[in-house]
Amino acid sequence: MAKVYLLAHTPSPEHTVASAAKLCYSSSTISDLRDKLTDESAAKFVEMLSEIGHESPIEHASFTFGIEGVSRSLLAQITRHRMASFSVKSQRYVREGAFEYVTPPEIAEDPEAKKLYDEIMAEDQKRYDALTDILKAKHIKMFLTEGKDQKTAERMAEKKAIEDARFVLPNACETQMIMTMNARSLHNFFKHRCCNRAQWEIKDIADQMLALVLQVAPDLFKNAGPSCVRGGCSEGKMTCGKAKEIKEFYKGLKK
Fold first, then answer.
1. Could you tell me the pTM of the whole model?
2. Where do the domains of the chain lie, and which CATH numbers do they carry?
3. Which residues share a beta bridge with 62?
């Protein structure tokens, strides 16, 4: 099961956003603008920005998440959100000894499918280990021939071996990452990934992320979530048809 942590965020994110927005329409100094802002006035200004669609000021607030227990398959989806920064556990530098893996719920609920799935993962581990050992032995000989000492040759050979052996690892292989997004990018992320039609794994972490940012910036993310939370469904003929239930879910999340 994926676990998401809010590691850091812009201090007083709603004050920062309100100050940036008010600066566009004021001759006051930045210090004066900040000093005059109260929690209530900052909240009202942030709400107004949402109503008029003035989105650029909310880019000044950023949020950093720690994400654990997700699959390598997730990376292909989440890195499509290009207005973000990612640091991911490397399979090139970290050997996957007895790797953990993510099991899709549909497989976990079916005993026969789960048994086969676990067998495949175990076989993948054996193949990865065997391939790593073959390549490592080859590279140790090469580095010793080049004049490296035994310890250095083994260290360099290990790194070079797993760089190629990782190609046989499955998409299910578990990984972890640190990701930073600004508030505007997060709103876009939540719009697409909190949707009921989003793939289950990325929807799960999107919901966890939204719950976390609501704790520190409730007014900034009051209207965040899939498009049906704010109005009509944007999926057209592909709609899940459960707008009422989804609205209730996110309403509860924001209490």
1. 0.88
2. 3-88+174-253 (3.30.1360.170), 105-168 (no CATH)
3. 182
